[in-house]
Amino acid sequence: MLRTLLxxxxxxxxxxxxxxxxxxxxxxxxxxxxxxxxxxxxRRPDLHQGLQYGYATLWFTTPFxxxxxxxxxxxxxxxxxxxxxxxxxxxxxIPPEDRPAPSLVLGEAHHETRPGRAPDPQWLTIPQxxxxxxxMVLGSVGTGKxxxxxxxxxxxxxxWRSHDADHKLGGLVMEVKGDFCRQVxxxxxxxxxxxxxxxxGLDSGVCYNPLHNDLDPYAVAYAIATLLNNLFGKSKExxxxxxxxxxxxxxxxxxxxxxxxxxxxxxxxxxxDDKLIDRDIRKLKAALASPPDVIRLSxxxxxxYDPGRAWSHWYPEDADHMAHPFxxxxxxxxxxxxVQYEVRPAQGDxxxxxxxxxxxxxxxxxxxxxxxDTRLRSSITEGIVVFLSLFDDNPAVHRAFCPPRSAYLGTxxxxxxxxxxxxxxxxxxSADLFVGDPGRGRRDRLPVRREGEGRSRxxxxxxxRQRPKSPGGKTLPTRAxxxxxxx
Length: 487
Known about the structure:
Layout: H1 2-7, H2 9-27, H3 35-43, H4 45-79, E1 104-109, E2 122-126, H5 128-131, H6 145-159, E3 171-173, H7 179-190, E4 197-199, E5 206-207, H8 217-232, H9 238-258, H10 264-272, H11 275-287, E6 293-298, H12 299-305, E7 315-316, E8 321-325, H13 328-336, E9 342-345, H14 350-369, H15 374-388, H16 390-393, H17 395-401, E10 418-419, E11 434-436
Helix pairs in contact: 2-4, 3-4, 6-7, 8-9, 9-10, 9-11, 9-14, 9-15, 10-15, 11-14
């Protein structure tokens, strides 16, 4: 009880000062019959008013400082003797493998506002919902940010349901030194997930296309323009970043509409030669002049075989089917898997959405890009290609970050790099990829692939062996290579 009062000694000092000040002003007010004060009030009313406020203030501040001093001296005397308290131990620590949901134990939780051990300590835990916002560890050099925080935190996360392919966690590790990546590899080996660790680097044989994702072209273009500003300095004029973003956005959108797949090297060539942009816009306008043929398959097959890994123009045609603009390579891929599909004219809103985007591209090229001065266009182009040229003139960078579409299908040509992309969902349903930045000259850091990656599909999964059917329901004949011809 006494220590609780001492902890609140500042509040007690304020209460004492309030009581003494009110009593003092009522008992001993400023004398009104004093000749000198009357003269000051007559000659300098402002000075007399200041004296009144100063007199009243002293009645409150003086007892406050006096009570604070006495309370501090008494607290010093009391805190020299340890309190006789019964301290309980921490609750049993729950290993990550036994936790119902992913969480992070940071350490022990004691008093919130003062040092010292709490009688009833608890574990300081970040629940699953708090993990979505990220964790920042701050500290000076040598204070143990890595050894006391990063190592135990990552160890807890990788051990959670480490043998459950549907729920185990994955992550992305980016660093320069390489020490942390080796520690993560050891953690994964200890919990039986060594096969989940994969290296993404210039000489690791694993490739990754940063442009092949579900992000909006504007989001990708803005990220690249922001990276250019961080690398080469931000201009005082916002025009340049806006121009970089605009050009990149429409080139990426054009390549996605035309081919459904693009890389940094292709974007680099299209920015250098805008005649390619004009050519693709003309081809796209001709192709979308009337509803084109699309490849249509059920949503169940689309979810099972996931052809969207390499072809990104899938859209829901109705409640039960997905459709994609006709592509001979896609048709051959589906036929090689014996997936039931059909080729038919486009229906629904997917074709109209592509027409709308094509018209936007045409307006941008004719009324915006083509009307810019030649020297201005050269300046915008040069500001972008200084970065994108790295993906064209460096063979190692080109292999690692500009892979062909075949890398996402497992049908690599000789000399193509390997890949770590999403496997068919029939094999597993969780993405557990731990990616390590290879750094400078290091080859011992990898990321975590999914369980079952690289395995062939077991026959009991029930893959359909039927030939694709035409809209009328008749089985289409196949060529000698097994690829069905178009209906």
